[in-house]
Amino acid sequence: MTDLNFIFSRRSIRRLTEEKVSDDQVKKLLEAAMAAPTAMNLQPWHFVVIEDAGKLADLRKILPFGKMHAPLAISVCGNLGPVKKLVTERFWVQDCSAATENLLLAANGLGLGAVWCGVHPISRLENAVNTILNLPDSVIPLNVVYIGHPAEQKPARTQYDQRKISRNIFGSPWESAAGED
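Request: output the structure for the sequence above.
Response:
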């Protein structure tokens, strides 16, 4: 597993076809998401799979950067109810972000397109998504990920920037042993 193209080729895809994402693909996306690391393995997530056209339209209305037409969306949420521990309250965002990135990489690996639209920590967006998805008070929506078959292609890329790397202390330049920039 030395080829990292599956990471570099993951791009935000905002133009999607109307073709349905199969239940098998959705299950694989969720399995990949739940393979993410979590603090103390508490897995403080809950995933809401949204296929209902009315709910998707409601989400498009309230999400400022979520106007995409997609046959599917998954809201990755932090569920603080079952395990009320300080670690869960402090690390659910990181845990659910790791799950979201796994979901995005899995979508790319399955030939699907996806885009992450943030919800948390903007209260008005959280409240609107809570209402649309009927979330209990203990569940906080981190994001909505639109998923579908891509109607656009983007080239693979890295956004590597040597200036954003330090060695040992901030501001001390890091250079690879190979002498690359």
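The beta strands are 45-50, 72-79, 113-118, 139-148.
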